Amino acid sequence: MSVAAASFNPNSKPDLPRNVADYPPSVWGDFFLLYASESRFSSTLTCLPLILRSPSKSQVDRFNMPFGYVFKKFKDEQENFSEGLITNVEGMLSLFEASHMMIHGEEILEEALAFTSTHLKSISTQLSPYLAAQVKHSLTSSLRKNLPRLEAQHYISIYEQDTSHNVILLRLAKLDFNMLKSLHQKEFGNICK
Predict the structure, then answer these.
(1) Is-contact 99 92, C-beta < 8 A?
(2) Residues 135, 101 within the same domain
(3) Does residue 185 sit within a domain?
(4) Does residue 128 share a domain with residue 81?
(5) How many CA atoms lie within 13 A of 163 on its CB side?
(6) pLDDT tens digits for 150-163?
(7) CB count, 10 Å around CB of 115?
(8) Confidence band (pLDDT; 50, 70, 90) for 69?
(9) How far apart, in whole angstroms, are the C-alpha atoms of residue 174 and residue 172?
(10) Segment 75-107, tens digit of pLDDT
Protein backbone atom coordinates (compact mmCIF):
# COMPACT_ATOMS: atom_id res chain seq x y z
CA MET A 1 0.00 0.00 0.00
CA SER A 2 1.43 3.38 -0.99
CA VAL A 3 1.81 6.39 1.29
CA ALA A 4 -0.76 8.39 -0.69
CA ALA A 5 -3.33 5.61 -0.46
CA ALA A 6 -2.66 5.07 3.26
CA SER A 7 -3.08 8.76 4.09
CA PHE A 8 -6.33 9.09 2.15
CA ASN A 9 -9.35 8.68 4.39
CA PRO A 10 -12.73 9.22 2.68
CA ASN A 11 -14.36 10.03 6.03
CA SER A 12 -11.90 12.76 6.99
CA LYS A 13 -12.86 16.36 6.29
CA PRO A 14 -10.24 18.60 4.68
CA ASP A 15 -9.41 21.92 6.29
CA LEU A 16 -9.98 23.82 3.03
CA PRO A 17 -12.85 26.34 3.05
CA ARG A 18 -15.58 25.59 0.53
CA ASN A 19 -17.31 28.21 -1.58
CA VAL A 20 -21.02 28.56 -0.97
CA ALA A 21 -23.40 29.60 -3.73
CA ASP A 22 -25.69 32.35 -2.50
CA TYR A 23 -28.21 32.73 -5.32
CA PRO A 24 -31.23 35.02 -4.87
CA PRO A 25 -34.65 33.38 -5.20
CA SER A 26 -36.00 33.16 -8.73
CA VAL A 27 -38.80 35.48 -9.83
CA TRP A 28 -40.52 32.41 -11.32
CA GLY A 29 -40.70 30.58 -8.01
CA ASP A 30 -40.80 26.80 -8.30
CA PHE A 31 -43.18 26.64 -11.28
CA PHE A 32 -40.62 25.43 -13.80
CA LEU A 33 -38.89 23.15 -11.33
CA LEU A 34 -42.15 21.41 -10.51
CA TYR A 35 -43.17 21.30 -14.16
CA ALA A 36 -39.80 19.91 -15.20
CA SER A 37 -40.10 16.91 -12.91
CA GLU A 38 -43.16 15.84 -14.89
CA SER A 39 -41.57 16.20 -18.32
CA ARG A 40 -38.74 14.48 -20.12
CA PHE A 41 -36.99 17.83 -20.51
CA SER A 42 -36.17 18.15 -16.81
CA SER A 43 -32.44 18.69 -17.21
CA THR A 44 -33.03 21.75 -19.40
CA LEU A 45 -35.73 23.38 -17.31
CA THR A 46 -34.11 22.89 -13.91
CA CYS A 47 -31.30 25.16 -15.12
CA LEU A 48 -33.75 27.92 -16.07
CA PRO A 49 -33.53 29.89 -12.78
CA LEU A 50 -29.73 29.96 -13.13
CA ILE A 51 -30.01 31.15 -16.72
CA LEU A 52 -32.53 33.87 -15.84
CA ARG A 53 -30.29 35.24 -13.08
CA SER A 54 -28.70 38.37 -14.52
CA PRO A 55 -25.06 39.08 -13.64
CA SER A 56 -24.04 42.33 -12.02
CA LYS A 57 -22.04 44.93 -13.97
CA SER A 58 -18.84 44.06 -12.09
CA GLN A 59 -19.17 40.40 -13.12
CA VAL A 60 -19.60 41.34 -16.78
CA ASP A 61 -16.67 43.82 -16.76
CA ARG A 62 -14.24 41.05 -15.79
CA PHE A 63 -14.87 39.38 -19.12
CA ASN A 64 -14.26 42.50 -21.23
CA MET A 65 -11.59 41.46 -23.74
CA PRO A 66 -10.25 43.35 -26.77
CA PHE A 67 -10.72 41.43 -30.03
CA GLY A 68 -7.82 43.09 -31.84
CA TYR A 69 -5.29 40.32 -31.34
CA VAL A 70 -7.72 37.65 -32.58
CA PHE A 71 -8.65 39.46 -35.80
CA LYS A 72 -5.14 40.65 -36.71
CA LYS A 73 -4.50 37.29 -38.39
CA PHE A 74 -7.06 38.23 -41.07
CA LYS A 75 -4.99 41.29 -42.05
CA ASP A 76 -2.01 41.55 -44.38
CA GLU A 77 1.24 43.53 -43.97
CA GLN A 78 -0.47 46.80 -45.02
CA GLU A 79 -3.05 46.35 -42.21
CA ASN A 80 -5.85 45.69 -44.75
CA PHE A 81 -8.07 42.66 -44.62
CA SER A 82 -6.55 39.90 -46.72
CA GLU A 83 -7.96 39.55 -50.22
CA GLY A 84 -7.73 35.78 -49.72
CA LEU A 85 -10.81 36.05 -47.51
CA ILE A 86 -12.95 36.94 -50.53
CA THR A 87 -12.67 33.42 -51.95
CA ASN A 88 -13.72 31.83 -48.63
CA VAL A 89 -17.43 32.69 -48.45
CA GLU A 90 -18.16 30.67 -45.30
CA GLY A 91 -15.16 32.23 -43.54
CA MET A 92 -16.21 35.72 -44.59
CA LEU A 93 -19.76 35.01 -43.41
CA SER A 94 -18.39 33.88 -40.04
CA LEU A 95 -16.26 37.03 -39.78
CA PHE A 96 -19.33 39.11 -40.67
CA GLU A 97 -21.36 37.48 -37.88
CA ALA A 98 -18.47 37.80 -35.40
CA SER A 99 -18.11 41.51 -36.18
CA HIS A 100 -21.64 42.06 -34.82
CA MET A 101 -20.28 41.25 -31.34
CA MET A 102 -18.35 44.54 -31.26
CA ILE A 103 -18.67 47.16 -28.59
CA HIS A 104 -18.10 50.87 -29.11
CA GLY A 105 -14.52 51.68 -30.00
CA GLU A 106 -13.41 48.34 -31.46
CA GLU A 107 -12.14 49.67 -34.76
CA ILE A 108 -10.93 46.34 -36.11
CA LEU A 109 -14.44 44.88 -35.84
CA GLU A 110 -15.93 47.97 -37.47
CA GLU A 111 -13.46 47.50 -40.34
CA ALA A 112 -14.34 43.77 -40.50
CA LEU A 113 -18.04 44.60 -40.71
CA ALA A 114 -17.51 47.09 -43.55
CA PHE A 115 -15.14 44.75 -45.43
CA THR A 116 -17.30 41.64 -45.17
CA SER A 117 -20.65 43.31 -45.86
CA THR A 118 -19.28 45.03 -48.98
CA HIS A 119 -17.76 41.85 -50.37
CA LEU A 120 -20.69 39.60 -49.42
CA LYS A 121 -23.10 41.95 -51.22
CA SER A 122 -20.93 41.98 -54.33
CA ILE A 123 -20.60 38.18 -54.62
CA SER A 124 -24.07 37.15 -53.41
CA THR A 125 -25.40 36.80 -56.98
CA GLN A 126 -22.57 34.42 -58.00
CA LEU A 127 -23.11 31.84 -55.22
CA SER A 128 -24.95 28.53 -55.06
CA PRO A 129 -28.60 28.84 -53.98
CA TYR A 130 -27.68 27.41 -50.54
CA LEU A 131 -24.92 29.97 -49.86
CA ALA A 132 -26.82 32.83 -51.52
CA ALA A 133 -29.80 32.29 -49.20
CA GLN A 134 -27.51 32.18 -46.19
CA VAL A 135 -25.65 35.36 -47.21
CA LYS A 136 -28.87 37.24 -48.03
CA HIS A 137 -30.40 36.34 -44.66
CA SER A 138 -27.24 37.29 -42.74
CA LEU A 139 -26.98 40.64 -44.51
CA THR A 140 -30.59 41.54 -43.70
CA SER A 141 -30.63 40.24 -40.12
CA SER A 142 -27.60 39.15 -38.13
CA LEU A 143 -27.72 35.92 -36.13
CA ARG A 144 -26.79 37.74 -32.93
CA LYS A 145 -29.64 40.22 -33.20
CA ASN A 146 -32.47 37.71 -33.59
CA LEU A 147 -34.18 35.10 -31.45
CA PRO A 148 -32.05 31.93 -31.40
CA ARG A 149 -34.98 29.55 -31.95
CA LEU A 150 -36.21 31.48 -35.00
CA GLU A 151 -32.68 31.53 -36.39
CA ALA A 152 -32.43 27.77 -35.79
CA GLN A 153 -35.66 27.19 -37.71
CA HIS A 154 -34.42 29.34 -40.57
CA TYR A 155 -31.01 27.68 -40.65
CA ILE A 156 -32.56 24.19 -40.66
CA SER A 157 -34.46 25.06 -43.84
CA ILE A 158 -31.30 26.50 -45.45
CA TYR A 159 -29.09 23.60 -44.33
CA GLU A 160 -31.55 21.15 -45.84
CA GLN A 161 -30.83 22.67 -49.28
CA ASP A 162 -27.07 22.03 -48.92
CA THR A 163 -26.20 18.98 -51.00
CA SER A 164 -23.51 17.91 -48.52
CA HIS A 165 -25.74 18.11 -45.42
CA ASN A 166 -25.46 15.44 -42.74
CA VAL A 167 -28.77 13.55 -42.77
CA ILE A 168 -28.54 12.40 -39.14
CA LEU A 169 -27.57 15.86 -37.89
CA LEU A 170 -30.46 17.41 -39.84
CA ARG A 171 -32.89 14.86 -38.40
CA LEU A 172 -31.66 15.53 -34.86
CA ALA A 173 -31.94 19.29 -35.36
CA LYS A 174 -35.53 18.95 -36.58
CA LEU A 175 -36.37 16.59 -33.71
CA ASP A 176 -34.86 18.96 -31.14
CA PHE A 177 -36.68 21.93 -32.63
CA ASN A 178 -40.04 20.13 -32.72
CA MET A 179 -39.68 18.72 -29.18
CA LEU A 180 -38.94 22.16 -27.75
CA LYS A 181 -41.76 23.67 -29.81
CA SER A 182 -44.24 21.15 -28.36
CA LEU A 183 -42.94 21.85 -24.86
CA HIS A 184 -43.41 25.60 -25.37
CA GLN A 185 -46.94 25.00 -26.67
CA LYS A 186 -47.72 22.89 -23.60
CA GLU A 187 -46.31 25.54 -21.24
CA PHE A 188 -48.25 28.26 -23.06
CA GLY A 189 -51.43 26.22 -22.69
CA ASN A 190 -50.79 25.83 -18.95
CA ILE A 191 -50.19 29.56 -18.57
CA CYS A 192 -53.38 30.41 -20.49
CA LYS A 193 -55.43 28.08 -18.32
Answers:
(1) no
(2) yes
(3) no
(4) yes
(5) 2
(6) 888 988 998 898 88
(7) 21
(8) low
(9) 5
(10) 888 888 888 888 888 888 888 988 888 888 888
